C-alpha cells in the first residue's frame, strides 16, 4: 500500500515530465486496491472479532464497526479538500505516511492468531503487559 501510494505521488510530480502515460496511473491505483484487499481489508473485521472478550464482543464490534465507517466517511469527505490544499502528489504522499503508524502497530502489537481458539486469543489480550 505504501509503495503504491508513493508511486502515485511520484507520478503526479514527475509523470508528465518523464512522459509516463496515464495507463501507469491506472495500474498503480489497481495495485493499491490489490494491496489493500490482501492486507487490511481482508483481516480487519476478523482481527476485531478476535481481540474482544466474549462478554463484550457484540457491543465492542458495534463500536469498532461504527468507528471504521466514520473513518471511511471522513476520508471520503476530506479527500477533495486535501487534493485542493496539498495537490494530488501531496495528498497521496500523506496517505502513504499515514500507513506507517498502522504498519508499526500491526508489527509490534498484534499477535499471530492462526490455529488458536478464541479463548487462547482472549487470554493473550488479558495478560499483564511485559515491561
From TrEMBL:
It comes from the Bacteria. SUPFAM superfamilies: MFS general substrate transporter. Keywords: Membrane, Transmembrane, Transmembrane helix. InterPro entries: MFS_dom, MFS_sugar_transport-like, MFS_Sugar_Transporters, MFS_trans_sf. The keyword Transcription regulation does not apply. Signal peptide: none annotated. Residues 1-114 form the Major facilitator superfamily (MFS) profile domain. It holds the Pfam family Sugar_tr. It is a multi-pass membrane protein. It is found in: Membrane. The chain crosses the membrane at residues 25-47, 59-79, 85-107. Belongs to the major facilitator superfamily. Sugar transporter (TC 2.A.1.1) family. This is MFS transporter. It comes from Arenibacter antarcticus. The lineage of its organism: Bacteria, Pseudomonadati, Bacteroidota, Flavobacteriia, Flavobacteriales.
Amino acid at each position: 500500500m505504501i509503495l503504491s501510494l508513493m508511486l502515485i505521488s511520484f507520478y503526479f510530480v514527475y509523470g508528465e515530465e518523464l512522459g509516463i502515460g496515464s495507463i501507469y496511473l491506472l495500474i498503480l491505483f489497481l495495485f493499491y486496491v490489490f494491496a489493500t484487499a490482501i492486507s487490511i481489508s481482508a483481516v480487519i473485521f476478523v482481527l476485531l472479532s478476535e481481540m474482544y472478550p466474549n462478554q463484550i464482543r457484540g457491543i465492542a464490534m458495534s463500536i469498532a464497526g461504527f468507528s471504521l465507517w466514520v473513518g471511511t466517511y471522513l476520508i471520503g469527505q476530506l479527500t477533495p479538500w486535501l487534493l485542493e490544499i496539498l495537490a494530488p502528489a501531496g495528498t497521496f504522499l500523506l496517505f502513504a505516511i499515514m500507513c506507517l503508524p498502522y504498519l508499526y502497530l500491526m508489527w509490534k502489537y498484534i499477535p499471530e492468531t492462526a490455529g488458536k481458539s478464541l479463548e487462547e486469543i482472549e487470554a493473550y489480550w488479558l495478560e499483564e503487559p511485559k515491561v
